[in-house]
Amino acid sequence: MRLENKVALITGASNGIGKETALLFAKEGARVVLTDINDQDGESVAASIGKAATYVHADVSKASDCESMVAQAEERFGKLDILFNNAGIMHSDDGDAGSTEEAIWDLTMNINLKGVFFGCKYGIPALKRAGGGSIINTASFVALLGAATPQLAYTASKGGVLAMTRELAVIHARENIRVNALCPGPLRTELLMKFLDTEAKKQRRLVHIPMGRFGEASEMAKAALYLASEDASYVTGTDFVVDGGITAAYVTPE
């Protein structure tokens, strides 16, 4: 098992990438701390894993919640080896610079960017106490290229996650702490499908994906497993892109 005797904390773990990663990490031998604001689903996922998992309510936009989730991980399982800052939102009112309201901008930044900062702020000392470990921050392919279907706050927040990931990777590289950004392409998750609520919106995206389909959360979980494991022992500061070929494409297949 690739994560035997490891302790992982995963934010946004009640569904999507976070849920699939929690299930996979546990299968690979990790003890898992799941956090979210969706308590019912989060507790359900933890219960399905069993004694190797626990659920903690945490709003990642609040420093006190992030400090507490790390403390509870150490208290419950004795240490922290893997931190997956995955929680994020994609708001339906997030558009271009003219249409996006300040409140939507602030909400998106507070969760998607500040939430990663708080996770690292309180998680890194715990990783140091454990002798090192792996941090995975969920960014996005939109951190690497622009789109004419604007989600400006989301795009900016994920660009910030990518820049922060690189800097933290360099700062902590000689402390046995690896920091990488997972950059998914469009996924067939509840989050995105709720946003792409018409067939026309879905097709507008699919035409630009060389593989011709949306990705699955389980595929991102496998990428996160690689970054969390010793298989990635010489990997830090990367934008680990798992996007069906979008960022490689100019003209896609007919």
Description:
The chain has 254 residues and is α/β, with parallel strands linked by helices. The chain has a single domain (7-241), classed as 3-Layer(aba) Sandwich (Rossmann fold), CATH 3.40.50.720. It has helices at 16-27, 39-49, 63-77, 102-112, 114-129, 152-172, 190-195, 199-206, 217-228, and strands at residues 7-11, 31-36, 53-57, 82-85, 133-138, 177-184, 239-242. It has a seven-stranded parallel sheet, sandwiched between helices. The longest helix is centred in the middle third of the chain and has 21 residues, at 152-172. The termini are far apart. The model has no long low-confidence stretch (mean pLDDT 96).
The sequence of SSEs as H and E is: EHEHEHEHHEHEHHHE
Task: Tell me roughly what share of residues is in helical segments.
Answer: 40-55%
Total count of helical runs of at least 4 residues? 9
- Overall form: globular
Q: What is the β-strand count?
A: 7
Rg (CA only): 17 Å
Secondary-structure content class: alpha/beta
Strand content: 5-15%
Tell me the number of structural domains.
1
At the fold tier of CATH, the topology name is Rossmann fold
Low-confidence stretches: none
> What is the level-2 CATH architecture name?
3-Layer(aba) Sandwich
Task: Name some characteristics of this structure.
7 strands; seven-stranded parallel β-sheet; 254 residues; alpha/beta; Rossmann fold
Quick rundown:
The chain has helices at 16-27, 39-49, 63-77, 102-112, 114-129, 152-172, 190-195, 199-206, 217-228; strands spanning 7-11, 31-36, 53-57, 82-85, 133-138, 177-184, 239-242. With 254 residues, the protein is of the alpha/beta class.
